[in-house]
Each structure stands twice: as structure tokens, then as C-alpha cells.
Design brief:
This protein is an all-alpha fold. It has 3 domains: 31 residues, no CATH class; 398 residues, Growth Hormone, Chain: A; 54 residues. The protein has 19 helices and no strands. Helix 6 runs antiparallel to helix 12 and helix 17 packs across helix 19. 56% of the residues are buried.
Length: 489
């Protein structure tokens, strides 16, 4: 293996000048002007790391509580549960459609600037969510808050990555996973009782001071990056990608209601395919493409993306919405008790973070990812055996296995993807990963929810949930097979 004097530890990206016969498993990092700017901010890398993480947590810590409160929200606004699921589905769609755009804007116009604007928008619409007067207004404000908050992910990851050598990034991502998973745990612990004792509105009120603190510290601590004035934003590519994904996600969301074989769904899927094909052609001819098309020829960029769609389909579809509904309908638990049960997922996700940090470099990303997907599949298999007599402990452990699995897998996959692209495109790659993550989430929530509802009259309440969980396990196993083809970085 050839090492560059500029490349920390010799680990990084492929140099354009190197012959293709060199080790294809190793990329070489080339220092960029932006890297030099962000490493001279006056604060230590770990200080920047923790401040960026606070911003990420502030936009996400209340999500799990809302999933556990869907039934209560539907009753308060006198709407059916399928509409109220949009309080979870809507933000996921916003994340998916605009994640790549947010990442690209951060790469072009400054990652710090994008991060701070994201916090402002997320906090503002979070506050409006607290005063929502209908189910529709709550869904709209919550979705807009999530759309703004979507930039914190790719911009934050890019800011963090420029502070650490490539060989240390998987360790950093392990701690990132611990804090990101710990955020929802804290949100559940704080907000679950608030909903039961007072109102769900206090969930969003509690978000405001956390976001304000993150904004102040981010302004003071996060390093500035230069704006790239010589590159134009790819507006046609952005519009084609957003429209294509919107049509696809609309088909996924309306499928359970209109029927998966209906003409309307077929039209939406066809429109999506046409627009996404046009997006590919646009990216091939664009001077500054939204996503450089050459990345789609890199195994370590494409395979992790696809694998995470299937794994997240199982993880979020089965554990994020289906399990809370199972607990509420089969066990009859309150929001607080349901919330505490589902904390096992983020809790064990958090516990996996230090393991990834210490063992990641030794075991390698591929071993960690295959093992993580396997645990997610095992969790779904266990949930497919649950019934009215299984008890809280069984559900808690089953969900914890999934949380541990994804806690092992996600940092490893993020490391693989970001090491497969150029330094200048790290935020864009983070946005693309976030987009695929949310596609899996939306598909899992809607498709598994549709399966459970359609099978209830044939298999009974418990049996319908068991069948949906087993299908989730199949998707997780598919993700495990896919990720086994990743090359070790």
C-alpha cells in the first residue's frame, strides 16, 4: 500500500494519479482548503464535536415520544390513526426529499452557516407545533421543523469529520452514535410523563431552550468554512430529485389507502421512475452535479446506501411505530409506560457506541455492519413471537437487540460512505445517506402498517402484528446479505 505524506495514517481516498492496480480497498485522503480552515478554529476537535452533537440532538430528541402518542393525538383531534401517523411520516418524508439538497448547500455555502440556519428553522417551527390547533397544522409545523433540522445531520457530520484524521473517524462515530441515541432516551424520560400529566404540547416547548443553547454554542464554537463562489447550485437536478422522491414517497404513503395495485399508485410510481431517470441524465451533464455520478460506480458508496434502506425498513417500521401500537393495543399500556419500554432501542444503540469506538478499527466496518444487520433481523424474529402474555421484559429485550444492532451498524456504514467520497462532498454524502435512511423508514412504517391492518381480520390482532414483524425480519436479512459485499476501508 502506498501512503501519502498528506494522508493521516495512509488511510483515505483513491488518488486520481494512482494506477488502478493499487489496493482497491483503501482510499487516500487529500487535504483541502476547507480542511485547513476548519482545523484552525481556536477550539479543540472534541469541543467542536460535542457542540455539533448538541445541535443534532436538539432537532431529534422528541421523535420517539410522538410515535408512542399517535393514538392520543388522534383522539384529541378527532381524526383517524392513518392521518395522525403523518406526524411521524411527514418529517421522515421531509428528511428524505431534502437531505441531499441540505448537504449540498452546506458543502457550497458553508457548513457552519447551514447548521445554524437549520437550528433556527427547527426551533421556530417546533415552537409553532406547540400551539397547533388541528391535526393538519401540527403535521405541517412538525414537518417544516424536520425539514430545517435535516441540515444538522450532513452539515454536522461534515464539520466533525474535518476535525479528525480518517483513521480515527470510526471511533468518533461510535461516540456520535451514543449521544444521538441518548437524545431520544432523554426525550422519552422527560416528555413521556409530560404527555400523560399535562399535554403533548410541552414536548415542543421543551425543545426550544435546548435548541437555543445549541444555537448559541454553535455560533461561538463551530468553525467557519469558505463559500464556494465558483460553483453554481444544481437547481434542475435538485428539482428532479425532489419531485421524483416525492412521487415515490407519496405512492408508499397512499398505497395502504388506495390499494397497492391501483391506477393512482401505478401512475405515481411511473412518474417517480421517469423523474429519477431524468435526474441521472441531468447529473451526467451538469458542470457541478448535486451528486457526482461517479460515486454511483463506487461499491462502498452504493452498497451501504441500499443496505440501510432494507435494514431501516425493519428497524424503524417494526420498532418505531408498529411496536408502540402493539404495546398500546395488546397490552393497553399508557403513553409513559409505552415510552419507557421503547427506550430499550435507543438505550442499547447508545451502549453500542463505545464498542464501535474501541473495536471498530480492529474488526472493520464490514464485520460490524453484517453483525449489526443480523441483530436487527433477530429482533424482528423475536417480536414475531410476541403475544398478550409475553410481558414487558420480552419486548424490552427484543427491541434492545435491534437497538444494539443498528448502533453497531450505522457508525460503520457512515464511515464507509464518507471515506468513499471526496472531502469536499462529505456533507452531500451525509445527506444522501440520510435520504436513503428515510426512504427505508417511510417504507417500513407505511408498508408494515398496511400489512398489519389488512391481516387483522384474517389472523386476529396479535397474529397480524406477528406477520408484519416476520416480514420486517426478511428485509433485515436482505440488508445483511447486501452489506457483506462492502470493501473494508
Amino acid at each position: 500500500m502506498v501512503k501519502s505524506a498528506d494522508s493521516p495514517g495512509g488511510v483515505g481516498r483513491e488518488s486520481e494519479s494512482e494506477p488502478k492496480t493499487l489496493n482497491p480497498y483503501v482510499y487516500k485522503v487529500q487535504p483541502t482548503r476547507e480542511t485547513r480552515l476548519t482545523t484552525t478554529s481556536g477550539f479543540s476537535p472534541w469541543t467542536i464535536f460535542w457542540v455539533a452533537l448538541l445541535g443534532l440532538v436538539s432537532a431529534n430528541f422528541m421523535v420517539s415520544v410522538l410515535a408512542a402518542a399517535i393514538n392520543e393525538l388522534a383522539q384529541e383531534f378527532s381524526v383517524d390513526r392513518s392521518l395522525m401517523r403523518w406526524v411521524v411520516t411527514g418529517p421522515n418524508l421531509g428528511f428524505a426529499v431534502l437531505a441531499v439538497t441540505a448537504g449540498k448547500l452546506a458543502d457550497l455555502y458553508g457548513r457552519r452557516q447551514a447548521f445554524l440556519v437549520s437550528l433556527i428553522g427547527s426551533g421556530f417551527f417546533g415552537l409553532l407545533s406547540a400551539v397547533a390547533w388541528s391535526a393538519e397544522s401540527l403535521i405541517i409545523f412538525r414537518t417544516l421543523s424536520a425539514i430545517f433540522g435535516s441540515a444538522t445531520g450532513p452539515a454536522g457530520i461534515a464539520i466533525i469529520f474535518t476535525q479528525f484524521e480518517a483513521s480515527k473517524r470510526i471511533r468518533v462515530l461510535g461516540w456520535w452514535g451514543l449521544v444521538m441515541a441518548g437524545g431520544p432516551v432523554a426525550g422519552i424520560a422527560i416528555c413521556g410523563p409530560l404527555i400523560d400529566l399535562y399535554s403533548w404540547r410541552w414536548v415542543f416547548i421543551a425543545q426550544v431552550p435546548v435548541t437555543a443553547l445549541a444555537l448559541i454554542l454553535g455560533y461561538k464554537v463551530l468553525p467557519s468554512t469558505s463559500r464556494k463562489t465558483d460553483i453554481k447550485f444544481d437547481i434542475p437536478g435538485t428539482l428532479l430529485l425532489a419531485a421524483g422522491l416525492s412521487a415515490l414517497l407519496a405512492a408508499i404513503n397512499r398505497g395502504p389507502i388506495w390499494g397497492w395495485g391501483s391506477t393512482s399508485i401505478s401512475v405515481l410510481v411511473s412518474i417517480s421512475v421517469v423523474l429519477l431517470v431524468l435526474f441521472i441524465f441531468q447529473e451526467k451533464r451538469a458542470v457541478a452535479p448535486l451528486i457526482p455520478i461517479e460515486y454511483f460506480r463506487r461499491r462502498n458508496f452504493v452498497i451501504p446506501m441500499l443496505s440501510q434502506v432494507f435494514t431501516n425498513f425493519a428497524y424503524m417500521g417494526a420498532g418505531f411505530v408498529l411496536t408502540p401500537l402493539f404495546i398500546a393495543e395488546v397490552y393497553g399500556h399508557s403513553v409513559t409506560r409505552t415510552s419507557y419500554l421503547i427506550t430499550s432501542r435507543p438505550l442499547f444503540f447508545a451502549l453500542a457506541g463505545p464498542l464501535v469506538g474501541f473495536a471498530g478499527a480492529r474488526l472493520g466496518e464490514r464485520v460490524l455492519s453484517v453483525s449489526g444487520a443480523f441483530f436487527v433481523a433477530v429482533s424482528a424474529c423475536l417480536l414475531s413471537l410476541a403475544n398478550a402474555t409475553s410481558g414487558d421484559f420480552f419486548v424490552f429485550v427484543s427491541l434492545g437487540i435491534a437497538g444494539f444492532g443498528l448502533g453497531v451498524m450505522q457508525p460503520a456504514m457512515t464511515s464507509v460512505i464518507t471515506n468513499a467520497v471526496e472531502e469536499k462532498d462529505v456533507a452531500t454524502a451525509g445527506g444522501a445517506q440520510q435520504m436513503m435512511w428515510q426512504l427505508g423508514t417511510a417504507g417500513g412504517i407505511e408498508i408494515l402498517g398496511s400489512i398489519q391492518e389488512s391481516r387483522e381480520r384474517f389472523s386476529g390482532l396479535v397474529g397480524s402484528y406477528n406477520e408484519a414483524f416476520m416480514i420486517a425480519a426478511g428485509f433485515a436479512f436482505l440488508g445483511m446479505v447486501l452489506v457483506s459485499f462492502v470493501r473494508r476501508v
